[in-house]
Amino acid sequence: MAEGSDQEKTEQPTPKRLKEAREKGQVAQSKEVSSALILLTSLCVFFFAGSWMFWSLSGFMRGVFQDLGTFHLHDISTVSAFLLKIFEQIFLILMPLMLAIFVVGIASNIFQIGFLFTSKPLVPDLSKLNPVQGIKKFVSLKALAELVKSLFKISAVSSIAFLTLKGELDIIPSLIQMSVADILSFIGRVCFKLCFYVCLFLIILAILDYVYQRWQHEKDMKMTKREIKDESKQTEGDPAVKGRIKKAQMEIAQRRMMEDVLDADVIVTNPTSLAVALKFDAKEMIAPQVIAKGAGFIAERIKEIAREKQIPVVENKPVAQALFKLAKIGDFVPADLYRAIAEILAYVYRLKRMNR
Questions:
Q1: C-alpha closest to that of 93 among 152, 142, 50
Q2: Out of 138, 255, 257, 271, which could bridge 292 as a Cys pair, Cβ 3.0 to 4.6 Å?
Q3: Preceding peptide of 13 cis, ω within 30°
Q4: pTM value?
Q5: How far apart are CA 221 and CA 350, in angstroms?
Q6: Are the CB atoms for 34 and 109 separated by under 8 Å?
Q7: What are 269's strand-pairing partners?
């Protein structure tokens, strides 16, 4: 039962998993957002600059046809120059629309996924040629959702187009009595109205699709408990190995600390379970320094070394407890204990003078 639960993707993705997926181009992105924003931008450009674009294009084409008889296209170079001039003028007229679409297309993707450039999706992957995996993609829940979304979009856009054109059927017979300009104006108005309603629908669809893509991405990124453990081992190391390394480091630190006990001036004990080794050099130190401390077995070992090397051992329970609690190895003693430590050191110095 536990093994089966380890294979279920129930855990939230780790930052490492999300970072690796982003580097591979696996991000929550909705194509409907880009489509809706591009269509909305195009409508805005046509609304504000459509008249200028139309009359500029019609004026340019009128000039071309009027001067067509005066052109002398003798060879390929003159034909190329003529076509290049036409393309240049058309490009200048359509440039506001193309520039707006280009900017909005990039901005819509940055809005969804931020700045991201990766070439990994372009790298050939032989696993994609596996027919079994290919069939799984076609029959997956994600593929079904995309199919339903496409059918719904086609049906909705067709319905909008039908209802929009149905409302204009009464005006179509009267077009036969209108001028060409009025007919073009009618066609432009109907097309703009149709695109506007379609754009509203696509905006709603884009919001819903973006929410769905985020939910689907979070679901795909979820990890099993086994994957969490494996990733933890890769990033932080095997717990058993880490434990052995930590134990070895502690042993090395204890050996170094025991060696430092040899330089101690006094050992303060409580007297049974704690021992703190102090060193003080008035010429080099501003205050006494804790060079070793320990409890239990380590405290007994410190006292044994002190007895072997004839280092004074002073029993002072309050001072020993305070030093053990407040001072780390290598720290100077706290200022609150200066007076008590000074009395202990003075007692030790008196003993040394008497022994001489």
A1: 50
A2: 257
A3: no
A4: 0.53
A5: 72
A6: yes
A7: 275, 315
